[in-house]
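Let us walk through a complete example step by step. Step one is to write down the protein sequence. Step two is to encode the small molecule, nicotinamide-adenine-dinucleotide, as a SMILES string so that its atoms and bonds are unambiguous. Step three, shown after the inputs, is the structure prediction itself.
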Amino acid sequence: MKILVTGGAGFIGSAVVRRLVSIEKCAAVNLDALTYAGRLDSLASIAGAPGYAFEHADIRDAAAVAGIFARHQPDAVMHLAAESHVDRSIDRPGDFVTTNLVGTYTMLEAALRYRDALPEGRRDGFRFLHVSTDEVYGDLGEGPPANEGAAYRPSSPYAATKAGADHLARAWHRTYGLPVIVTNCCNNYGPYQFPEKLIPTMILAGLNGEPMPIYGEGRQVRDWLHVDDHAAALGAILRGGRPGETYNITGEAERRNIDVVEAICATLDELLPDAPHRPHSQLIRFVDDRPGHDFRYALDGGKLARDLRWRAPVGFEEGLRETVRWYVDNRDWWEPIRRGGHAGQRQGTAR
Ligand SMILES: NC(=O)c1ccc[n+]([C@@H]2O[C@H](COP(=O)([O-])OP(=O)(O)OC[C@H]3O[C@@H](n4cnc5c(N)ncnc54)[C@H](O)[C@@H]3O)[C@@H](O)[C@H]2O)c1
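Step three: the predicted structure of the complex.
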């Protein structure tokens, strides 16, 4: 099976490509524009594998996308390419509108034309897996976890463009018969995450003895899933999910931000007993909250458990420890990013 993965140089996309090539023994074509978030060095372990190919292209470029379908003849698409950082979406929403909405439209159109021209046997098996987020359901407050029928109430420009992209993907299924499956997943963590998201930002600040900035009072709640478990769930959904359906993917690990950061500090204390800034929790600083900050996201993953027997393995604390250790051991990956101007500066304080 050959799969076209968009955004395969990003945090989750690279985990998906590594898994497809090295564990699931599929061929994978990575279509990525290599924005600031795209890092080919995240794919070094499989870069020379016979089943792997890279295409440097932008999902908004219809001609380039059509050419990639024609050249590689994939059996499925896993669409992850996106602008993904909420704070950036507050400062520069235009990039989010064009990539997340127009780019998704371009991918759906190209996939539809390609799929309609396939011979019958291959046409029936073709799938378009659209990867999305729990943020489309908006702020849950104290309410129950969102199931797949919950209303969309996106708050940030990022969430609004992902919500719009989800609707486009479903419309291409309902109106044109493209075999689309949509997934909505909770917050991911793990190796190779760009140091602007909460967990790597805090780890690198702690490692460098810099202030660890927590928005508001840190009481916001997020549900966490290890990126490799997300990649495994996406593989299971691509194989067994039904076209036209939506599947929530939950880590069943709701944690307050402050508790996540305290756990990172405790792990740094343990791994680096000689660090001059021990205890690392003294670096925590409470800063102005993010504009429009959602208080809580949580997902009901019952459908995925019932229909495809997939549940996340238990183990957020262990996964977080391994992630801290990975950043301690892999300076070669993140030091160039910080030297390149991404050294934890505050973003998204409203224009
Ligand atoms: N990170 C999370 O916690 C999370 C949770 C649920 C869903 N998601 C979704 O998963 C997907 C991947 O998220 P991520 O955290 O890996 O993002 P990321 O920012 O790490 O990676 C995005 C990738 O897309 C590429 N890209 C961006 N614009 C492009 C364009 N116009 N054309 C081609 N490539 C482009 C970038 O170069 C990068 O490699 C996104 O669709 C995101 O909405 C993320």
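Step four is interpretation. The first strand starts at residue 2 and ends at 6.
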